[in-house]
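REQUEST ID: PR-0412
SUBMITTED BY: lab tech R.K.
PRIORITY: routine
TASK: structure prediction, single protein chain
INPUT:
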Amino acid sequence: MQNNENKITVHLWVPNLFEFKGGIQVYLQDILQAFTHHFPNVSLLIFDKLDQCQPDSTFATKNISFRFSGTVPKILQTCHFALSLILGAVRERPKVILCGHIHFSPVALWIQRLTKIPYWIIVYGTDAWDVQDAWKVKALHSADKIISISTYTRDRLIKEQGLPSEKISLLPVTFDAQRFKLSPKPNYLLQRYRLEAQQPILLTVGRLASCDRYKGYDQILQALPEIRQQFPNIHYILVGQGDDVPRLEQLINQLDLQECVTFAGFVPDEELCDHYNLCDVFVMPSKGEGFGIVYLEALACGKPTLGGNQDGAIDALRQGELGALVDPDDVQAIAETIIQILQGTYPNPLIYQPELLRQKVIDFFSIERFNQTLYDLITTSKTLDPQR
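STATUS: complete
OUTPUT:
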């Protein structure tokens, strides 16, 4: 594909990329980075619904261009975006349309019916679980390909929608291993949070928003009284901010946990690795994660990691090979598992070998592996064959 002189035009539709940074945005940016470095013969036009502009030095390449709908009044953004998608497809006839979110797939379906332009859909987590919207269901079945970030989401789509397994390809989440490395507990953070290096510290990283309670921080708080019986000086740090903090503060007061919980609030990127290295166990017993890049980041810092067994954490922790999977609704099981990990008796010796744990997560989820998987997926696709 790289040696072929024929230019291939691809349209990528995204909710946003720059002004808000969540898991979907990071994943889509990783895809763009792969296109930038490995697909010079693909001309990629990105339709961005919510952003207003492209940061000056981001994806500054002649092969990637943008059209933004965030510049129009908010009340008109959806209509402007949809019209841009339709007119862009009709005028430019891309080889394929990549729907960066299932919400856009009904538009792709109608374009396919009118123009025969094939489309792919990228699916993440709750967006693709238990889909009831009739047009989205039709769009899933009519897609040329579906790209799933996890086997969990893929298997749910197969079961819930009756999709053939060969329609769905896996492109697991990746992370920047150069940013997340092993290190002793940083002294400046111990001082900031008034902690001792010997203290057992639990950490969760994620938005503390009412819509994200599925991340399981409530269950960790409810498990803390029992954990404190074994580890009286246990401390729990929550990195993130959101509208759920006042409710959590009330819960902390009810459980009498004021002395052993810290809200770190927003943490800049340059301090994130240090926060992972501050903890003894990374905990996020979620039940709504499509994958969870934070698990990979914690593992790359060599940290024992606990996730839920009912979502994409199963993929991130490799079915328990890289960490502990628990029922996210079972507070007792969560408490017992954390106690086991802290006591050094959890029956998975890998979690106590930080260098090997780091190497394993890099082997499975490195950027190089992500790029190769995407390259194989695209170069073996009949849809993107320039001769067709």
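NOTES: The mean pLDDT is 93.
REVIEWED BY: pending
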